[in-house]
Amino acid sequence: MMSVHRFVLAGSLVATTALTVGLGMTDPAAPLYYPTRFLVWNLFLAWIPMVFAVGFATVRRRGWLIPLGLGWLAFLPNAPYLVTDLVHLGEGVELWRHVLQYGFAAWTGIMLGVVSMVVVHDRVEREFGVAAGWLGVVFSVGMCGIGIVIGRFQRWNSWDLVTRPDAVVASTLEWVRSPFAQVESTGVAIAVAAFFGLAYLTVWSLRGVGADGSPARRPVG
After folding, report:
1. For residues 41 and 115, is the Cβ–Cβ distance under 8 A?
2. Are 54 and 119 within 8 A, CB to CB?
3. Cβ atoms 27, 33 nearer than 8 A
4. DSSP helix/strand/coil, 110
5. pTM
6. Of 114, 105, 113, whose CA–CA distance to 39 is shortest?
7. Tens digit of each residue's pLDDT (9 = 90 or more) over 183-193
8. Residue 34: φ, ψ to 5°
9. Which long-range contacts (CB under 8 A, 24 or more apart) does 127-134 make?
10. Nearest CA among 123, 113, 119, 110 for reference residue 53
11. With contact defined as beta carbons under 8 Å apart, do 156 and 77 qualify?
């Protein structure tokens, strides 16, 4: 049964990704024109934490948990970041097409982030306990907020953490020292992080509710 659930989950995430791309490919304008071009790239980045999460959940040696966990955390903000792409939404003859396209992309990003966090949370809780699992969730959601500032307002990306870590850290620390001096970026970061955190709590809570509203039985083993 659980394998069926995983198959449906993966299929749904792939389908919403395909819907986003499909809406762009069938646009009267040239294929993969703005905004489809950057949405496809951002969706690709949003899938990367899922890859790290699967590796984190399945690796046997604890020594691999650190690099896989750091890789997952570095790319995780790309998932809720898709919500901020709504800033590009404007009026036009294809307004409804773009509303759906941005909406599908934002939904897919949030779900990719939430599902990958569920996977990582389960492994951390299994290895280090309940407290460590929830501490990791809170820390990760907070880092997503900072990632929104870095990506949307400072215009860095996850690759820059490898190629230009000093510049990324310097600009981030500048914002950390006076977050309320930049009200817009701080407000957006808090709002998106809160939305992402609440989405996670919603999905996590649903795992414990049966069809009749009673607590669901988790599979053994």
Report:
1. no
2. yes
3. yes
4. helix
5. 0.85
6. 105
7. 788 899 999 99
8. -60, 130
9. 127/62, 127/65
10. 119
11. no
